[in-house]
Amino acid sequence: MGSLGEGLRDRRRRETRREIHVVALRLAREHGFHKVTVEMISAGVGISPRTFFNYFPSKESAVVEQPPAELSPDLVARFVEGGPGRPRDVLTDLTRLLIEQLAQDPPERSEVHDVFELAHSAPTVFAALMARFDASRLTLAATVAQRMDPDTDEQVPDLIASVAMTAVRSGMERWSQDTADDRSDSPVLYVQRAVTVLEDLLAPGTHDFT
After folding, report:
1. pTM of this structure
2. Which ranges carry the HTH tetR-type domain (predicted)?
3. Hey, what domains does the chain have and what are their CATH numbers?
C-alpha cells in the first residue's frame, strides 16, 4: 500500500513492480515456472525486458516479490522507543509488531500459496524466497540493534530477528496451505499460533510436543 506522501512517479513504479509480480506468478501457474521467460513476463506487462530488469534481477525474484511486508516507519519508531530490555521481551514486542503489520496490510492468500508451492517445486524459487526473507531479517536485526543496549552482544539482534522471521514464515505457510479454512483472509491467527508455540518453546521447563 502507498503512503500519503507518495508521489506520482513512486506510485507508478510501485504499481509496475506489483504488476510484474502478478503476471510472473500467473504465467508460472499456467505454464510451469521453468517454461516462463523474462520475455514472456515483459510482454504480459507491456514493458521491455530491459525495463523488467530495472525492477527485478531475475524471474525468480519477480515471482517471490510479495512476502514479506516491511514494518512501517511508525511501527519501527514505536518499537525503538520501547527502549532496552531483556532479549525475550524485545522478541515479544517484535513479533507483535510484525503481526500488527500483517493485520494492517495482509498479503493475498492465493498469491502466498502459489509462491510457497513454486518454492517447493523449483529450487531457484526457493532460494529467491529465502533470500527475500533473509533481507527482511537483516532489516529487522538493524531495527532491533537500535533498541538494544549498546553493550549487548552483536549476535543478539540478529538472533531475535531470525527467530521472529521464522515464526512469521511458518505461520504464513500454514495459512496459505490450510485449504480447510477458507474463512480467513489474513495470516494473523496463524502467525499468532506460531508465536505462541515459540513462546512455549522458550519458556522455562520441559515441554512435550509429541
Report:
1. 0.79
2. 14-74
3. 8-63 (1.10.10.60), 73-202 (1.10.357)
